[in-house]
């Protein structure tokens, strides 16, 4: 995770659609927030019973959340104090996707931790794998995508967001 990439995303998004952002965001040219504390990250890990992936913790140490880059296509990353298991935030979507015909997705959603999109129309999820030697799974998820759009990691997501913004602007 690199701060210059987040700054570039912020600058392009603000320049492209200034009315979508606050006066402070426009003035600073930044869609992020103050960094999270290591204590806040550790408290979230304890609450969730997992060690969060390193790239996500690095992101939090840069910015404790990140405002959506658009009003329709992207999502807001939540402060670490607000993240939780998806089943605790939106048990209905977990139930719907646990239908036997699509149980593979439902099984992933039951284990997923929502880090973005808590009040948006789509989610960004971290999914801990059952086997500790296997990396985490990263999903952008919405019923209308449809379903899961996987990413290798957070850098992959933000790289794709930056590429999208460059094309659109």
UniProtKB/TrEMBL annotation:
Residues 35-160 form the Knr4/Smi1-like domain. InterPro entries: Knr4/Smi1-like_dom, Knr4/Smi1-like_sf. SUPFAM superfamilies: SMI1/KNR4-like. It comes from the Bacteria. SMART domains: SMI1_KNR4 (SM00860). This is Cell wall assembly regulator SMI1.
